[in-house]
Task: inverse folding
């Protein structure tokens, strides 16, 4: 399989505080990788480095063979192929659902408004929110906002999707609807990197699980290997707290 | 001319006799205010953006800091830290002759300079001073407005592949603008009132008209009360306009 993301010796310092202390990993096309670990372990920082929202202090990240943190890299072009979904949704509050979804395809991809609108309504249909097409984000529930945010990212037809704790800010009864959308996306063969605390989702949907702690990948493997038979003491301790 | 007394005290005939002067003064005050609102907002946006400019990588980082952030901060500090009245005098009597001078103007010299200075000198100085001054205040409004928008908005927009200028234009500024409207409105009202200071260098606006009338009759209630009312009506109109804009741009704001 094609390798779409290659991370080599990634480090990240905030002042003198090392958040990432040498991360190596490779992610292949259509793979679904869940990143788990205690809070403050650096897993969100790792994810945000993948599309250059965070600068790297050292090491290298290649996405489709392009070095993310090179100065001469066209970061906007690179990001347009990497969708991202945030913990706090980050929908544009002054724009309707439709406008949220059509803006970037029109401005960055050069779609006509009609094309973008068609694509938006297809995606809204898919996430089950076609009836909210003209609503403003503050008229939607958290789960609905997050589904719109997923549709917004998908409208760019990205080759990779990054999810940064997509259900952590949701009321419990809304977690399921968002996870269902993510699961169907995974089944369609999207390459996904998901930072999550939803262990059930990781076990069920992930092809591979990375356990990050203290800024390094402590352990990685299939969900079965990680959850049922963790080899590392820290992994065991973490899982005993969250499962 | 026959005296007209209102309430046995107010010489209404003075006001009507000089109606033309007041009218032209009013037009001048409105013109100066509108021009300075437009230019000051443009300048304020530029300086406000300069103050929040940040480079990510090494050369751009230092360039932004020393060529944009610092000069902008010094500029704002100077124009907020010195009296507008002094700025007007400084610009009219010291700075303007440097640039527009029949003998050796840096910008314009010769006969054109003489005409320009004679006919429009006070207007140019006044507009320049008021624009530079309000630009400093407005830049602070822009800076605060931009910085009040959640960082997640920038991140969401950039993660979609939108460039920084596009993110500013489509995402940040429209949201910031909504929050900036009330302080921008206050600023516009302050600007309108401050324009009266330009009368000190002889621009024939409202305050100047009142001073002329007062000088001619040695009466003070009539001219100054008249222009007070005119300023009041103008500020009320401005406040109403801002209110309308707030309602119009208020949709979809999450707070």
Result:
């Amino acid at each position: 399989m094609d390798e779409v993301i290659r991370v080599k010796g990634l480090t990240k310092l905030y002042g003198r505080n090392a958040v990432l202390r040498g991360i190596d990993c490779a992610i292949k096309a259509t793979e679904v990788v869940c990143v788990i670990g205690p809070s403050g372990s650096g897993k969100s920082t790792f994810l945000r480095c993948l599309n250059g929202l965070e600068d790297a202090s050292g090491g290298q990240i290649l996405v489709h063979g392009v070095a993310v943190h090179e100065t001469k890299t066209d970061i906007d072009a690179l990001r347009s192929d990497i969708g991202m979904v945030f913990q706090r949704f980050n929908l544009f509050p002054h724009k309707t659902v439709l406008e949220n979804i059509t803006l970037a395809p029109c401005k960055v991809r050069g779609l006509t408004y009609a094309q973008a609108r068609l694509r938006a309504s297809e995606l809204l249909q898919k996430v089950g929110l076609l009836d909210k097409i003209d609503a403003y984000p503050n008229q939607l529930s958290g789960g609905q906002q997050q589904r719109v945010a997923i549709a917004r990212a998908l409208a760019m037809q990205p080759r990779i999707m990054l999810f940064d704790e997509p259900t952590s800010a949701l009321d419990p009864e809304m977690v399921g609807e968002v996870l269902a959308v993510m699961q169907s996306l995974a089944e369609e063969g999207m390459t996904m990197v998901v930072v999550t605390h939803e262990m059930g989702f990781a076990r069920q949907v992930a092809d591979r699980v990375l356990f990050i702690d203290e800024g390094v990948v402590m352990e990685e493997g299939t969900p079965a290997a990680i959850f049922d038979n963790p080899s590392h003491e820290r992994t065991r301790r973490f899982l005993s707290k969250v499962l | 001319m026959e005296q007209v007394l209102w309430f046995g005290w107010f010489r209404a005939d003075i006001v009507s006799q000089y109606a033309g002067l007041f009218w032209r003064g009013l037009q001048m005050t409105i013109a100066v205010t509108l021009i300075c609102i437009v230019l000051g907002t443009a300048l304020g946006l530029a300086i406000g953006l300069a103050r929040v400019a940040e480079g990510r990588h090494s050369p751009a980082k230092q360039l932004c800091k020393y060529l944009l952030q610092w000069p902008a901060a010094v500029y704002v500090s100077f124009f907020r830290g010195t009296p507008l009245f002094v700025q007007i005098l400084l610009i009219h009597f010291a700075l303007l002759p440097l640039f527009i001078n029949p003998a050796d103007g840096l910008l314009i010299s010769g006969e054109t300079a003489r005409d320009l200075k004679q006919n429009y000198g006070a207007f140019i100085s006044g507009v320049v001073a008021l624009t530079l001054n309000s630009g400093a205040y407005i830049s602070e409004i822009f800076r605060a407005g931009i910085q009040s928008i959640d960082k997640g908005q920038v991140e969401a927009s950039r993660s979609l592949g939108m460039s920084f200028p596009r993110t500013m234009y489509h995402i940040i500024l429209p949201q910031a603008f909504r929050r900036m409207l009330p302080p921008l409105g206050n600023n516009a009202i302050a600007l309108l009132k401050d324009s009266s200071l330009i009368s000190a260098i002889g621009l024939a606006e409202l305050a100047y008209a009142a001073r002329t009338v007062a000088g001619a009759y040695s009466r003070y209630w009539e001219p100054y009360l008249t222009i007070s009312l005119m300023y009041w009506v103008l500020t009320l109109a401005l406040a109403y306009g801002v209110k309308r804009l707030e309602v119009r741009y208020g949709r979809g704001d999450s707070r």
